[in-house]
């Protein structure tokens, strides 16, 4: 990649867009800005001896070792808002995919009839209406209504928005993935954006709308501020998400004590992404994150916090060197883990017990684990002179993970470190 890592709110993050051409002698039509895209992401992670679980600890999307995974076959249709609009403007985004990533990205209560034995599943990533409204300030107000990817964090569900095949601990275990509700961005002055919105919770659909989908508690909210300096070369995006995320079923199934208030115990996420385009070749991105849940530690508070630093250096138009270093602290061994069954991640979000004995966290509940990871890779992206094909991206990487304060969470509880070699390919249409 030769462009900075895109945060989740920015752009369409598509590897390929097919647009209608504008006629020089005719006014642009609304339909002229419709875009359609498709991409396939296939990859695998190799190296660790995972034992009988068949899972790489601390990984979600690339958790099945030593085999090729069909991560996503994604289709997108969109009409993006005109960034220069001064009057009312309307758009939409529809995006869905089939593949193994859907085990972790699906909304609760969508496609629930799929078998837990099937690694490849369906997911609707985005289904929303977008409206630009004239408002006080230089850029007006943009409103997104429906189901949408979270604006929080440095990495995205869409693989073309990332530098690496594997994901950070922050993305996997702290950041939300998607929301249902509305999100507003107010472009107050050049370089200053204010964000706010209400939703039905983390990775939930519109059940019990406008209340929380899992417990009928108050709606969750997103709020934050985006700042841009140096002609856009230095930017900050600070966002928080706060809501009552414990499902009623977790109490009914005995996973948490009855003293927990599903509509009164909150989960709070704070996230700051800093992007600095140092020059035409070097870009640095930092994500700092903190999550706290009032009840996940057997009815008591649990928290985790971490930082991930990214660097990319473009060697040319098609080749970039990339690096990521991360420290993530799971203070009560609640957040980081592995899911031994294809349905267990979704079951945990819905408050149901795991189906697999290999669905575990990194250590004894209530104790601290500190994880570190260093990932080095290459991004090669080449335009394709082939009809109906746009580009091919290949991303090899080598990653070393370790726990820094004792414990043996890797290889089914036997090792303190693990090393993986991974590669994926993204074919865009």
Could you characterize what this model shows?
The two termini are 17 Å apart. Strand 9 and strand 10 (234-243) form a beta hairpin. The protein has helices spanning 102-105, 169-173, 248-252, 344-350, 410-413, and strands spanning 18-19, 35-46, 69-79, 89-99, 121-133, 140-149, 178-189, 192-199, 220-229, 234-243, 267-277, 282-297, 300-314, 319-330, 337-338, 360-361, 369-386, 389-403, 417-428. It has 429 residues and is mostly beta strands. A 16-stranded antiparallel β-barrel has the order 2-3-4-5-6-7-8-9-10-11-12-13-14-17-18-19. Strands 15-16 form a two-stranded antiparallel ribbon. Residues 1-25 have low confidence and may be disordered. 46% of the residues are buried. The protein has 5 helices and 19 strands. The longest helix has 7 residues, at 344-350. Helix content is 6%, strand content 47%. The protein has one domain (18-428): Beta Barrel (Porin).
């Amino acid at each position: 990649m030769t462009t900075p890592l895109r945060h989740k709110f920015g752009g369409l993050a598509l590897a390929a867009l097919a647009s209608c051409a504008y006629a020089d002698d005719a006014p642009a039509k609304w339909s002229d800005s419709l875009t359609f895209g498709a991409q396939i992401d296939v990859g695998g992670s190799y190296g660790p001896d995972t034992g009988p679980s068949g899972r790489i600890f601390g990984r979600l999307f690339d958790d099945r070792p030593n085999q090729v995974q069909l991560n996503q076959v994604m289709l997108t249709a969109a009409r993006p808002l005109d960034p220069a609009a001064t009057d009312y403007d309307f758009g939409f985004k529809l995006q869905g995919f089939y593949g193994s990533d859907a085990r972790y990205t699906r909304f609760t209560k969508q496609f629930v009839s799929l078998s837990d034995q099937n690694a490849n599943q369906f997911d609707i990533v985005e289904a929303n209406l977008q409206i630009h409204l004239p408002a006080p300030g230089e850029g007006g107000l943009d409103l997104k209504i429906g189901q949408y990817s979270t604006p929080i964090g440095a990495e995205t569900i869409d693989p073309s928005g990332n530098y690496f095949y594997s994901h950070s601990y922050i993305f996997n275990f702290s950041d939300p993935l998607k929301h249902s509700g509305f999100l507003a961005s107010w472009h107050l002055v050049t370089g200053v954006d204010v964000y706010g919105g209400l939703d039905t919770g983390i990775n939930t659909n519109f059940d019990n709308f406008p209340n929380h989908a899992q417990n009928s508690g108050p709606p969750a909210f997103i709020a934050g501020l985006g700042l841009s300096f140096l002609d856009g070369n230095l930017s900050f995006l600070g966002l928080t998400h706060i809501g009552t995320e414990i499902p009623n079923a977790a109490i009914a199934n005995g996973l948490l004590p009855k003293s927990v208030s599903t509509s009164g115990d909150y989960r709070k996420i704070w996230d700051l992404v800093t992007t600095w385009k140092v020059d035409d070749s070097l870009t640095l991105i930092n994500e700092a994150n903190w999550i706290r849940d009032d009840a996940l530690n057997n009815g008591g508070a649990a928290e985790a916090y971490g930082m991930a630093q990214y660097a990319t250096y473009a060697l040319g138009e098609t080749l970039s060197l990339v690096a990521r270093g991360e420290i993530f602290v799971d203070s009560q061994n609640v957040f980081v883990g592995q899911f031994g069954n294809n349905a267990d991640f979704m079951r945990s979000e819905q408050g149901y017990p795991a189906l697999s004995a290999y669905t575990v966290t990194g250590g004894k509940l209530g104790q601290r684990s500190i994880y570190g990871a260093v990932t080095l890779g290459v991004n090669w992206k080449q335009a394709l002179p082939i009809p109906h094909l746009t580009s091919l991206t290949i991303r090899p990487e080598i990653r070393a993970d370790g726990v820094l304060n004792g414990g043996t969470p890797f290889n089914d509880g036997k090792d303190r470190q693990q090393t993986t070699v991974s590669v994926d390919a993204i074919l865009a249409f």
